[in-house]
Amino acid sequence: AQKITQTQPGMFVQEKEAVTLDCTYDTSDQSYGLFWYKQPSSGEMIFLIYQGSYDEQNATEGRYSLNFQKARKSANLVISASQLGDSAMYFCAMREGRYSSASKIIFGSGTRLSIRP
Amino acid sequence: GAVVSQHPSWVICKSGTSVKIECRSLDFQATTMFWYRQFPKQSLMLMATSNEGSKATYEQGVEKDKFLINHASLTLSTLTVTSAHPEDSSFYICSASSAGVVVYEQFFGPGTRLTVL
């Protein structure tokens, strides 16, 4: 069964608009972590934001916020005021279980975001 | 922030040869290193997890005799693709984590693009 589902293969957004990238997950663990990464065409993986399953507040990092709906098992990424440099592939990812340095991260299939000038 | 490097950044080799890819944590000691493979327009697939001084743990379906992983020190892990064939052409990315650094994060290297002719 797929653990991380990203249903939007590609999205086009006008510059300066906000955009929401969808992510749903499946786990039976009570303790887990959710991540969003950005991968530009260069291939590097850029960490954007993290949400722990026990965190009561939605995570925010600058223009990025994570809309965490625990009961729905969704962890959507919201990018406010999109910029041309936001054009990239975006991956949602999950770590199951309590954290240890050996914890594996599983990635979703990704969403390619393209920002129109 | 924690920095992970990979060498080489790209490599082209002939079918049947072996290729070694290095992953180094430059400013922290990596308790665990992870190796991923990414085919074009696809997600990152975890190949194996390695802890310093012990044998790597391979994901299901990954041939351990073909993808040799060595994690000889807390700052270096190597992936050797033995007897490479064109189907092994891919983008290989390593990541590293440490209980001493940000507790939830894996730090990714810039990736190595392997092309087998």
| First-residue to last-residue Cα separation of chain B | 37 Å
- Gap between N and C termini of chain A: 39 Å
Shape of chain A: globular
Query: What portion of residues of chain B belong to β-strands?
Result: over 45%
For the largest interface, the chains and their residue counts are:
A-B, 23 and 26 residues
How many extended strands of chain B? Answer: 11
Instruction: Calculate Rg of chain B over CA atoms.
Output: 13 Å
Alpha-beta content class of chain B: mainly beta
Which regions of chain A contain 5 or more consecutive residues with pLDDT less than 50? none
Unreliable segments of 5+ consecutive residues of chain B: none
Quaternary state reads heterodimer
Mean pLDDT of chain A: 93
- Helix/sheet category of chain A: mainly beta
Count all strands of chain A and give the number. Answer: 12
Helical proportion of chain B, percent range: under 10%
| Helix coverage percent of chain A | under 10%
Overall mean pLDDT of chain B stands at 92
> β content of chain A, as a range?
over 45%
Indicate the overall shape of chain B: globular
Question: Can you describe what's shown?
Answer:
The complex is a heterodimer of chains A (117) and B (117). In chain A, the strands form 3 sheets. In chain A, strands 2, 5, 6, 10, 11 and 12 form a 6-stranded mixed β-sheet that branches. Chain A is an all-beta fold and 117 residues long. Chain A has strands at 4-5, 10-14, 19-21, 24-25, 32-39, 46-52, 60-61, 64-69, 74-79, 88-96, 105-107, 111-116. The relative contact order of chain A is 0.33. Chain A is built from no helices and 12 strands. In chain B, strands 2, 4, 5, 6, 9, 10 and 11 form a 7-stranded mixed β-sheet that branches. In chain B, strand 5 (44-51) and strand 6 form a beta hairpin. Chain B is mostly beta strands and 117 residues long. The N and C termini of chain B lie far apart (37 Å). The model of chain B has no long low-confidence stretch (mean pLDDT 92). The chains are: A mainly beta (117), B mainly beta (117).
